[in-house]
Design goal:
Chain A is an alpha/beta fold. Helix content of chain A is about 30%, strand content about 30%. The longest helix of chain A has 18 residues. The chains are: A alpha/beta, B alpha/beta. The structure holds flavin-adenine dinucleotide and adenosine monophosphate (AMP).
Chain lengths: ~250, ~325
């Protein structure tokens, strides 16, 4: 294991309750707290553990995002990534364009493994890893909750609707991670200082030969319908009476 | 006319109800012709079930030993070979569909629309973002094959009454050997399936142990309900992962959802927004779950649940 690439997306922090702009043109992002996508933190943690278990692989954090995405890449470097690359854009890219961009980076960097989150909590697309694996013509293991690496192969346990599934894939490969894979470490202050000195390169889609695809058009953004305020009951007998009246039990 | 290919989900014996929801979604597109593709080692029995779904025009059986287990890397090139005859390719928003359809889209060089929740035209759909806290209307280019997953909680199952033709198909696709299926483990039970059950009883961190979860199972059995769990309960090992409800678990739409000792984090609420009636039992009257509950009861679950079980009998 020589190199592991981890895709780190800058997203609205998962604790923020987002609001839709009154004119329906999108969600309000001004002044909102931004963080590393929670699944991507787990992806990075796994890469770091593989490195620390003795492989000593280089861990490369990559992102496509606005200039401020350097903050999230610095967080990744503080967690323990060795190096980072930001592909700077002025607006969000679609998953297919993201996958094409990561492919271009993979062709340059030749990682043995690429880790991504199973989904970004802003667009909830759940596409980029699978698309990257297809374009790279390599195996994919999505929704990973356990990863064991030996002899140029990985055995991955996947969280599927029916329970857990195990597959074996030849490396290099793409793995997208689920929440129960690990608990990401906390960043300590000295690590933040150290991270400032680690290399963070900035490049562009054009430099990588990617033309920005705008293949889908967003017509409008709306808030979801609100549920009506319900009733409070005082005891179990009243609860049962209400449910019986509604014909639910 | 829209020619829609639905990637049928099954376990070799039974067609997954998620496929019936995809059929309903596809039928909402005006003037659509619906084909269900079944990949497997032997799909004869499942094909008969798919052919009997109202609205399905044709069932394709793509039987070969390599298709015995649903591996996206193996299925995707075969789907690409079939896709030339279709304007749309739909999969369910289950772990099967989510794994598979983006791989197909990328091989075709087209984008994917995830989690269709409403059809507004053959190339215009609504879908949730930010864990369902916003809905977007998306338009795709009609000149490209449209790849999508269908948010199964948003559609009713298509009823029986169809009589589609069944066709055996082979594709010339060459299949990779870099991905191998090793096995599966499921806590399968004879309880109703969480994703299709009309009644769901769900427990959170407050249950405190796997042992205490039996309280919920006992009550659920009494009313014929499936059992779900919050992520906190799953992470703590009180319940297996396939029981998780929410943004990263299952999105469900039962007639009644009873949340017991669950605080109501947005990621959890994402999974239950489509429930007809939400009942919340929590000892904290300020818990956010009460903001969405149709019926709420403040109190200690360890007293309430046994009493509830007694009184519903
Ligand atoms: C990216 C991401 C994805 C996530 N996806 C999901 C998901 O899919 N599903 C999900 O559920 N969560 C998900 N979460 C986690 C979510 O944010 C919450 O942490 C989780 O839902 C909390 O679970 P809980 O309500 O069981 O626990 P808590 O928040 O700890 O709530 C326990 C509740 O039980 C009540 N209680 C305690 N004792 C009793 C008693 N004796 N009787 C009655 N009530 C009692 C308390 O008042 C409290 O309200 C996700 C988080 C992230 C960051
Ligand atoms: N712009 C981006 N920058 C970095 N990583 C990304 C980006 N877009 C997607 N990803 C990765 O792909 C995963 C899935 O994203 P999505 O397909 O958008 O749900 C995320 O968890 C990230 O790991």
């Amino acid at each position: 294991m020589q190199k592991i690439m981890v895709c780190i997306k800058r997203v609205v922090d998962y604790n923020v309750r987002i609001r839709v702009k009154p004119d329906g043109s999108g969600v309000m992002l001004d002044g909102v707290k931004m963080s590393v996508n929670p699944f991507d933190e787990i992806a990075l943690e796994e890469a770091l553990r593989i490195k620390e278990r003795g492989s000593n692989a280089e861990v490369l954090a990559v992102s496509i995002g606005v200039a401020d995405t350097q903050q999230q890449l610095r967080t990744a470097l503080a967690m323990g990534a060795d190096r980072a690359i930001l592909v700077q854009v002025d607006a969000a890219v679609e998953p297919l364009t993201a996958a094409q961009t990561f492919l271009a980076l993979a062709r340059k960097e030749n990682p043995d493994l690429i880790f991504l989150g199973k989904q970004a909590i802003d667009d909830d697309a759940n596409q980029t890893g699978q698309m990257l694996a297809a374009l790279w013509d390599r195996p994919q293991a999505t929704f990973a909750s356990k990863i064991e690496i030996a002899d140029g192969k990985a055995v991955v346990t996947r969280e599927v609707d029916a329970g857990l599934e195990t597959i074996e894939i030849d490396l290099p490969a793409v793995v997208t991670v689920d929440l129960r894979l690990n608990e990401p470490r906390y960043v300590k202050l000295p690590d933040i200082m150290k991270a400032k000195k680690k290399p963070l390169d900035v490049t562009t889609l054009e430099a990588l030969g990617i033309s920005r695809g705008q293949l889908l058009t967003t017509i409008k953004t709306e808030p979801p319908p609100q549920r009506q305020k319900g009733v409070m009951v005082k005891d179990v007998a009243e609860l049962v009476a209400v449910l019986k009246k509604k014909g639910l039990i | 006319m829209s020619k829609i290919l639905i990637l049928g989900e099954h376990d070799g014996m039974t067609l997954n109800p998620a496929t019936l929801k995809c059929v309903t979604c596809a039928k909402e597109i005006a003037d659509s012709q619906i084909t269900v593709a079944l990949f497997g080692a032997d799909t004869a029995a499942v094909a008969v079930q798919a052919a009997a779904v109202l609205g399905v025009n044709k069932v394709l059986r793509i039987d070969r030993p390599e298709n015995a287990h649903p591996l996206a890397a193996v299925f995707a090139p075969q789907i690409v070979a079939l896709a030339v005859d279709y304007t749309h390719v739909f999969g369910p928003s289950t772990s099967f569909g989510k794994d598979l359809t983006p791989r197909v889209a990328a091989l075709l060089g087209v984008p994917q629309v995830s989690d269709l929740m409403a059809v507004e035209g053959a190339y215009r759909f609504r879908r949730p973002i930010y864990a369902g806290n916003a809905l977007v209307t998306i338009e795709a280019d009609p000149r490209r094959t449209l790849i999508a997953t269908v948010r199964v909680a948003s559609f009713e199952a298509a009823p029986p009454g169809g009589s589609a033709t069944i066709e055996l198909r082979t594709t010339g696709a060459s299949l990779p050997t870099h991905t191998r299926y090793l096995g599966a483990k499921s806590g399968s039970t004879d309880r109703p399936d969480l994703q299709t059950a009309a009644r769901v009883v769900s427990g959170g961190r407050a249950l405190g142990s796997a042992e205490n979860f039996k309280l919920l199972f006992s009550f659920a059995d009494k009313i014929g309900a499936a059992v779900g769990a919050s992520r906190a309960a799953v992470d703590a090992g009180y319940a297996p992962n396939e029981m998780q409800v929410g943004q990263t678990g299952k999105i469900i739409s039962p007639e009644i959802y009873i949340a017991i000792g669950i605080s109501g984090a947005i990621q959890h609420l994402t999974g239950i927004k489509d429930a007809r009636t939400i009942v919340a039992i929590n000892k904290d009257g300020e818990a956010p779950i009460f903001e969405v509950a149709d019926v709420g009861l403040v109190g200690d679950l360890f007293q309430i649940v046994p009493e509830l079980e007694r009184l519903v009998g």
